[in-house]
């Protein structure tokens, strides 16, 4: 695994434990010689994870849409910032540069980015691991929703199992290192 993409909030959240968790994730990535791909911002948890990787001497690639760069959210210390025209191009390039995807606490954008990668995995567009850094149960309600969707036959159990979850970055990366994507021939139930 050469690089992981980390999706997370442009805010720090209400509890300092979120920042501590993403900083530890960043340090763990550097210990394992894994580079960071992230949204390019110097604010919130995005800035925290990038700072941790930079401080530990790791590789950081930011991908930032031009319009967000105009709002001065660009991380000032990241030298490799790729400027793109749209959010769609951002997500596509982040996916291309990454060997896996981790969502840490965040809001709508974080959730949207993670779910898109899960969907691409389900469709067979990539075979990369996707995971949640579930700091202090932050994603428990989301996991309950995914479980309910699986029980109601909207998500196949094999696809539900592709979302890896841990409260620590080191454990999550260990799960990524042994990840085996499902080998499904079809993903749609055509029985109506």
User: Roughly what fraction of the amino acids lie in strands?
Assistant: 15-25%
Strand order within the widest beta sheet: 4-3-2-1-5-6-7
| Oligomeric state | single chain
Biggest beta-sheet profile: 7 strands, parallel
- Determine the number of helices (DSSP H or I, runs of at least 4 residues): 8
Distance between the termini: 41 Å
SSE topology string? EHEHEHEHEHEHHEH
- Which outline best applies? globular
Main structural class? alpha/beta
Determine the mean pLDDT.
93
Radius of gyration: 16 Å
Helix content: 40-55%
Q: What would you say this structure looks like, in words?
A:
- The structure is a single chain.
- With 192 residues, this protein is α/β, with parallel strands linked by helices.
- The chain is 44% helix and 16% strand.
- It contains eight helices and seven strands.
- It has a seven-stranded parallel beta sheet, with helices on both faces.
- Helix 1 packs parallel to helix 2.
- The radius of gyration is 16 Å and the shape is globular.
- It starts with a strand and ends in a 15-residue tail after the last helix.
- The relative contact order is 0.16.
- The model has no long low-confidence stretch (mean pLDDT 93).
């Amino acid at each position: 695994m050469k690089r992981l993409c980390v999706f997370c909030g442009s805010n720090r959240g209400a509890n300092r434990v979120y920042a501590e968790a993403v900083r530890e994730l960043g340090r763990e990535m550097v210990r394992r010689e894994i580079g960071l791909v992230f949204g390019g911002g110097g604010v919130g948890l995005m800035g925290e994870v990038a700072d941790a990787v930079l401080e530990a001497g790791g590789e950081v690639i930011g991908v930032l849409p031009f319009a967000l760069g105009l709002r001065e959210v660009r991380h000032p210390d990241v030298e490799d910032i790729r400027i793109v025209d749209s959010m769609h191009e951002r997500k596509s390039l982040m996916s291309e540069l990454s060997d896996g995807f981790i969502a840490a606490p965040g809001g709508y954008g974080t959730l949207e980015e993670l779910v898109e990668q899960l969907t691409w995995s389900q469709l067979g567009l990539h075979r990369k691991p996707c995971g949640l850094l579930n700091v202090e149960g932050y994603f428990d309600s989301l996991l309950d929703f995914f479980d309910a969707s699986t029980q109601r036959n909207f998500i196949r159990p094999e696809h539900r199992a592709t979302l890896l979850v841990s409260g620590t970055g080191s454990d999550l990366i260990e799960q990524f290192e042994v990840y085996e994507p499902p080998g499904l021939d079809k993903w749609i139930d055509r029985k109506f």
